[in-house]
Design goal:
mainly beta, 9% helix, globular, single chain, 7-stranded antiparallel beta sheet, 102 residues
């Protein structure tokens, strides 16, 4: 895992190995703020489109996925791209993911 500190309270995290997911599981806590890019289905003019959007959530739940090697971090959306609709989001963090932890 590569960590780049943006300031005293903010870290950009690059997941490089599956073992990094265990470390993240220990580091991320409820009420932390997490942001990153993820895919959401956006409805525009009655047409659904899957787009990559930026989302910031307040973490409520952290768990390992039962079906794949990933860490699922869920929470309430507190800030997002203008296209995002909905109140909750789950990041599926895997090897190759990049997130920002506040």
């Amino acid at each position: 895992m590569r960590v780049e500190f943006l300031d005293k309270k903010t870290a950009k995290i690059f997941v490089e190995y599956e073992e990094d997911l265990i470390d993240l599981f220990k580091v991320i806590n409820p009420d932390d703020v997490l942001s990153g890019y993820d895919y959401r289905v956006i409805e525009i003019a009655n047409k659904k489109d899957r787009r990559k959007v930026w989302i910031k959530i307040k973490v409520e739940d952290i768990k390992f996925s039962e079906y794949s090697d990933s860490l699922r971090v869920s929470g309430r959306v507190i800030e997002a791209s203008e296209e995002v609709q909905g109140h909750f989001h789950t990041f599926d963090i895997r090897v190759g993911s990049e997130i920002v932890l506040f």
